[in-house]
Hints:
Shape: globular
Number of helices: 4
Largest sheet: 2 strands, antiparallel
Structural class: alpha+beta
Low-confidence stretches: 133-139
Strand content: 15-25%
Amino acid sequence: MEGRQCSDFMAMNSAALAEGRERFIDSTVSRSLAAGAYPQPGLHDKFYDQDMKPLLAVVQDTAGRHDTFALACTEFGYAERGFPGHVNCSDNISAAYAPYGIQPRRAWPAINFSLTPGLIPTATGLVPMNPGPGPGIMS
Length: 139
């Protein structure tokens, strides 16, 4: 991946799929095992599935910040904002996986590479701040 775009990214464990189990990239497991908000090159460089099996490793990352907290965008989210039927990443991911017999989901817990979110502390909790995609390379 290269440039100023962001990407809702999903990965499946092909060995688990061959056994009839859907195991995909899991941001909570990945954050926990990376001991941070997202994996980075070096010691804590992997994204994992729900069984704590590594799915991919970060080799290079010049973007430096990624969203591992939010879901991929959804039809529901767009409808709530006044755009019913809007094309969305969760439906796109489901459509891409359909030929492989993977069950569709209304929302996928994708990793949003190169999105540079931040959290603003408030009196009632943390509010997401999204300054948009940042430049960089992720490989």
